[in-house]
Amino acid sequence: MGSRILFITSTDTGVGKTVLTSLLARHLRERGVAVAALKPICSGGRADARVLRSSLDGALTLDEINPWHFRAPLAPLLAARRERRRVDLANVIAHVRKVQRRFDVVLVEGAGGLLSSLGEDFNARDLIIALRAVPIIVCPNRLGVVNHVLLTVEALPRLVARRAAVVLMSPHRPDLASRTNPRFLAGILGPDRVHEFPWLSLAMTSGRALARIRVRHVLEALRAGCAS
């Protein structure tokens, strides 16, 4: 795949970014790819960063995965201000680039949605542009997601948006909307850019999920699409 950065962002918070990022990291490692998974900025605890650390088998420390973390469960910018701390775009870019020198692929997980404020005067979109990363947009496959996906794609620069992949995270109980969303979005964005990720129980969100054919199919499609 070469040395590249994939940025896992979303239409909202709590939609499955960490699950996808950790499983993609495990899948790439199985394929012999030297992969890093970062969540540079988080607030409200470091649980997501710990999940990513467990997927890397000791390749990075927790502080390398997550250098900036804040206690309050708020947008990172607001949580940082409560602690009178500051996160600057240049420092985040420098950290990701430093890690990138040691790996073939770096997965960078954002916090919240694409336009959520991560630090002083920047958000995930700014990081994607600065890092020249390939965006992977994670979203819940439910009623209303078509609008959310298209708004998120529209918020990206045109050339970046053309490379973006969309991953629809399936609900436990599919309904008419979740059954029709994937094909409809594929008709707008292109069939190779829209992927339907199967529902996973909490127990299956670790490496055990890689045994499922549908999970591996999506992860392999992301690997192949981001390598092209």
Written description of the protein model:
With 228 residues, the protein is of the alpha/beta class. It has one domain (4-227): P-loop containing nucleotide triphosphate hydrolases (Rossmann fold). 43% of the residues lie in helices and 19% in strands. The protein has ten helices and ten strands. The chain has helices spanning 17-30, 47-55, 62-65, 76-82, 89-100, 124-131, 145-154, 158-161, 176-189, 213-227, and strands spanning 4-10, 35-38, 41-43, 68-70, 105-109, 117-119, 122-123, 134-140, 165-169, 194-197. It has a six-stranded parallel sheet with strand order 2-5-1-8-9-10, sandwiched between helices. β9, α9 (176-189) and β10 (194-197) form a beta-alpha-beta unit. α1 packs parallel to α2 (47-55), α1 crosses α10 (213-227) and α5 (89-100) crosses α6. The longest helix is centred in the C-terminal third of the chain and has 15 residues, at 213-227. It is globular and about 45 Å long. The N and C termini lie close together (8 Å). The mean pLDDT is 95.
Distance between the termini: 8 Å
What Rg is obtained from the alpha carbons, in whole angstroms?
A: 16 Å
Give the number of helices: 10
Tell me the major beta sheet: 6 strands, parallel
Question: What is the mean pLDDT?
Answer: 95
Order of helices and strands: EHEEHHEHHEEEHEHHEHEH
